[in-house]
Amino acid sequence: MTRNDYDKASRFAAKLDPPRFLEWALRLMPTAFQFEEWLDTRSVPFPGDKDRTGDTVARVTDPASSGGPWAIAVEFQNEPDPRMFGRLLGYLSGIWLEKKPDPEAGSRFEVGAVVVNLTGRGKASREMRWSAPGLTTQLAVRERNLQHESAADLLDTIESGGLSRALLT
Description:
The chain is 27% helix and 24% strand. By secondary structure, the protein is α/β, with parallel strands linked by helices. Helix 3 links the parallel strand 3 and strand 4 (110-117). It starts with a helix and ends in a 10-residue tail after the last helix.
């Protein structure tokens, strides 16, 4: 997809205060995760897209889990892309195949995604189930649809110090 001003500004804002942005985007308490860094994933383009240079993929850990670190792709859209489910499957598989959290053999990131839609209501999550042969394909995405969220509530929470002012950008 073509880059747009909303996408570019949102990526910038997310990087101003990554832990607080992810707290909001993932709907988690600050103690429920540890932001480590933004991963360089320029070599992992969406299928059919040119190389991406502004990827926003957070490396986070879950302090309550003994599992591996997570690579969480964060995507911003003016309006929901009906192909986002497929695009994320391809993108997350590329991260899982190409990026490693450490040099150990077999080491892999857990992968997930957040999609922030400026307008509309996205449907990036899917579960496809065919019971007879026992087939299931599932992708559960944390999706934030700003058009359906209260700006007044967000402003009140920011003013009280509950969320970062970076969300105002």
